[in-house]
Specification:
Structural class: alpha/beta
Largest sheet: 4 strands, parallel
Number of helices: 7
Strand content: 5-15%
CATH superfamily of the largest domain: Response regulator
Order of helices and strands: HHEHEHHEHEH
CATH topology of the largest domain: Rossmann fold
CATH architecture of the largest domain: 3-Layer(aba) Sandwich
Helix content: 40-55%
CATH class of the largest domain: Alpha Beta
Number of domains: 2
Number of strands: 4
Length: about 190
């Protein structure tokens, strides 16, 4: 911190304003790449994906994981709901916890924080962009984000809430595959 204070003073002596943006461009302060994972109610899919993404980063990108912030929210979420019991149990079996999760709706603050917003369904993307036009360039269907070949691979992510074990298994398998694909692409782009 003393180094940054000294740098700011020396830049001031040159009559240059040392703004946080300038320091980011100089590589001295690194802005976190913020991923918002959104589903409908923020109680099943997005909390699970958020937790799994954090676990995946910690395991596979130890040195750069602090450059990424991951937040979950819901397109139509109420404030303060807990993650569904089933998804909490699945997360626990997968080595991470959703006990502290509380649902949060997508709002202008969430949009402003985001570098990218990943939604589970095309209708969620449509709704978000209609409500928040400023989100249009950074909102993607999870299966479409950073995908080079779209053919037969871009689709909605199943909402297993209230469904059977095969639906949860499909959701988990697809989620894990998409997380691995997305983080590999982000790594290749130098984000992580």
């Amino acid at each position: 911190m003393a180094f940054l204070e000294g740098l700011i003073k020396s830049l001031s002596g040159l009559h240059l304003e040392a703004t946080p943006t300038m320091l980011v461009y100089m590589g001295l302060l690194r802005k976190k790449f913020t991923i918002i994972v959104a589903c409908r109610a923020n109680i099943t899919r997005s909390p699970y994906l958020c937790g799994y993404m954090k676990k995946y980063l910690k395991k596979n990108f130890r040195s750069t994981r602090k450059n990424v912030r991951i937040i979950s929210a819901g397109v139509r979420a109420a404030y303060g709901g807990v993650a569904s019991e089933v998804i909490q149990h699945i997360a626990k079996m997968g080595g991470f916890s959703l006990r502290g999760h509380r649902s949060y709706p997508v709002d202008r603050r969430v949009i402003a924080l985001a570098d990218v917003i990943l939604v589970m369904e095309q209708n969620q993307k449509t709704e978000l962009v209609k409500r928040f036009p400023e989100a249009a360039q950074k909102t993607f269907l999870l299966t479409a984000y950073l995908r080079e070949n779209y053919f037969n691979k871009v689709r909605d992510i199943i909402d297993p809430t209230g469904l059977g074990a095969p639906d949860y298994q499909e959701f988990i398998a697809e989620s894990h595959a998409e997380v691995a694909r997305i983080f590999k692409a982000l790594h290749q782009k130098g984000v992580i």
